[in-house]
Amino acid sequence: MRTGEPLPSVGEVLAALATGLWHWDTAAGLVTVDAEAARLLGLPAEPVTLTEAQTRARLHPVDWNEITGVVRLAVAEGTLAEVRVRIMDGDGSILRVVRSRSKPSYDPERQGYELIGTLQEVTEPAPGTPAARSAVTGDWRRSREAFLLDAGRALAEARSTAEVLRVAGGLSMPGFSPDGLVVFGAEGDRLTITGQHGHQPGDMNPFSHMPLDTDYPATEVVRTGRAVYLSSPEEYKDRYPATWPLAQVFGRRSWAFLPLTVAGRTMGAWMAAFTYPVAFTPDERAVLTTVARMLAQALTRAGAAESERELTDGLQRSMLPSLGPEIPGMQVAARYIPTGGGLQVGGDWYDLIPLPSGRFALVIGDVQGHDVRAAGLMGQLRIALRAYAAEGHRPDAVLSRASRFLHGITHARADDSLTDPRFATCLYVEADPPTGRLEIARAGHPDPVIRMADGTVMLRPTAGGLPLGIDPDADYPTTRFTLESDETLMLCTDGLIETGGHDMESGWRRLRAILENHPEDGEADLESLADALVQAVHGPSSHHTTGPLADRREDDIALLLLCRPGEGCGCGGTAVTVRLTARRTLLSVAQTEPDRIAEARRHLRALLHDWGSADQVDSAVLLVSEMVTNVLVHTDADALLLAEVFGEGAGRRLRVEVFDTGDDLPHRRRPGELASSGRGLMLIELLADAWGVDPRGEGKSIWFELYEPGDRSDPSEAPA
Q: For residues 410 and 58, what is the distance between their CA atoms, to the nearest angstrom?
C-alpha cells in the first residue's frame, strides 16, 4: 500500500486475513454471515442469513453445545467468548476446524443473546506427523472432558465439607494445576474461611472475618457474583493495592477467584492460586468455572447432610430414653437400639418415672413405623405418659388418657388427606420396691417375662386392651402380681423378638434359651444379661447403638430388665434371703375372664417345663382347670391361683392353691354316668398325692400336691 492511499475497509482487511464475520441473534433465531464466513462453513462464498437449525447442521453437535456454555460464561464474566468449532460436511466428515471469537451481550427484554464475532480457520497438523500424533494424544477436549467427569464423580461422592475440600485439593486440572486453594464463605458482612489446601495452619488468618467491603478479590466476588482473574502479580497489585501485601508473601504468580453459586445465590468464593503465570484463556476459564459450580453444589450437599446429621444427633440426644433415678432395693438395666437409615431415633422407647406415691413406673412402648413421624409421635407420647403418671393416676387411667391423647393428635383433621393415623403399643408397670408388688396395664404390647430364681423363664400373661390411639374410649384392665426375691422381669418391644426372620413364637424360644442359660455366678449382673439378649439378635451393642450396626437392624429394639436382688439371682445384688421355694407364680382369673383358664393351664405347664413326669404335668393341668372352673361356676368370686415348686433336683414337690372369697366349702358328689359335672373332688382325690380345703378368713382355698418321682419331700417343709 502506497503512502497517501486510503486505508482499506474492515471487510477488506478481514478478507485478506481469511477471517469471516458473523452475527447471531438468539431471540430471532437467525445467524447472518459474510462471504468468507459462509465459505468457512462449507457454503457458497456469498453473504447469507441462516436459521439456527441450518447453522447447527454445519457444526459438530458437541461443539454446538459448547458454544452455548461459553456464551453464558462470557456474559457472566464480561469477557470475549472464544471456542474452537469443527465444521462438518454433508457425509458427516470434519471439513475443517475454525476458531470463533465474539463479544456476547444479553437483552433481558427480548430474553436472548446477541453475538458479533469472527471465524478463522485453524491449521491442524498433517496426518501421520509427530505433531499430529501429539495433538491426538493430548487432545484438549478429551482431557478436559475426562477431568471434569472424574472431578464431578469424586465431588458427588464426598459426604462432608472436609471430604469436598480434600477432593478439590487433589484435582489435577488439564494443563494447569493450582498449588493453593481456599473456599471462602460469608457470615453477615464478614468473609469466612470454610476450608483451604496448600497452606500452613494460620496462614489464612489475615483473610478470615475480613469485612465484605474490603478491597480484596474474594470479597468482590461474593458481593458481585462475578469471577476475578489475575494473570500476574502486577495486575493484582494494580487492582487491589490494599490487600496485595497480604497475598505477596505466598509468592504466587496468578490467581482465579470464582463465585460459588447455587440456585442463583452466591454462597461464597473459590480461590485457585498458581506459582506460575496463567493466561486464563477461555478454555481454562471454562474449566475453572465448571469446577466452581460442581464445588458449590458439593459443598451445598455436604452442608445440608451435616446439618441433617447435627439435627439428627440433637434430636437423638433429646429423645433418647434414660433410666433416671435408681429404684431402692431393685436393679434396672435397659437397652435402646434404633433401626437406623439416617435418623438414629425410632418409634420404640422405655422410661423410668418416679411417682408421687414413692413407687416407680416402668414404661416400654412402640409407635407404629420407623420414620421421623414415628420418632416425633414417640417423643410426644412419652411426655404425655410422664405427665399423666406424675399426676398420680393408676396404670389403667394412665393408658386410657394416653390413648385418648394419641388418637387426638393423629386424627385431629379427619378431612385432611395428609392425616397419618398411627397407633402405639405400650406396657406400663407400677412397682412398689419394698414389697415387689407390680401393677401392670397393657395396650397391645407383648406380655412381660419372668426369670425365676432357679432360671425358669415364663411368659407372664396379663390383661390388656387395644393399642393406644385406636379407640379414645378404650379400657385397660390391671394385672397384679409380686416380683419375688431373686426374680427378674423382662419387658421388650417386638423388635427384640422378631428380628432375624423370627415370628413371635420362634423369637420367644430364642430369648428364653438365653435367659435360662445366663450364668448365675456372682460375676454376672443385669447389664451382662441385657448385653447377652441384644447380642443374640444383632451382635455387640452399646446402650444406644448407632452407625453401621444400627443400619442393619430390621426393627427398633427397646429392652428393660427389673430385678429384686437376692442370694444367687445373678443380677449383681447383695440382698440375702432364705429361699423356701425354687419357683412360684400367682395368677388371677376373674368371673368376666373365663378364657384365662386356658392361660392358667399354659402358665402351669411353663412352670413345670422340667418336671420329671409328663403324666403328672398333665394331671396338674387338669386339676387346675377343674379347680378354677369350679370357683367361676359355683361362686360369684374371682379365682386366685398360686403354684409353688419346693426343693431342688429330683424329688421336688408341687403345691397348687386356688383361693376364692366364697363361703361354701366343696363337697363330694356322686354324679351319674351321664352327668356333666360333680367329678372335681373325685379327680383330685384320684390324681393328687395330697389335697385339702382350708378356710382363709373371708373365703377358702383348695389345694393339692404332687411329688416328683425319685424322692418324696417331707410335707412339713411346705408353708402352712
A: 64
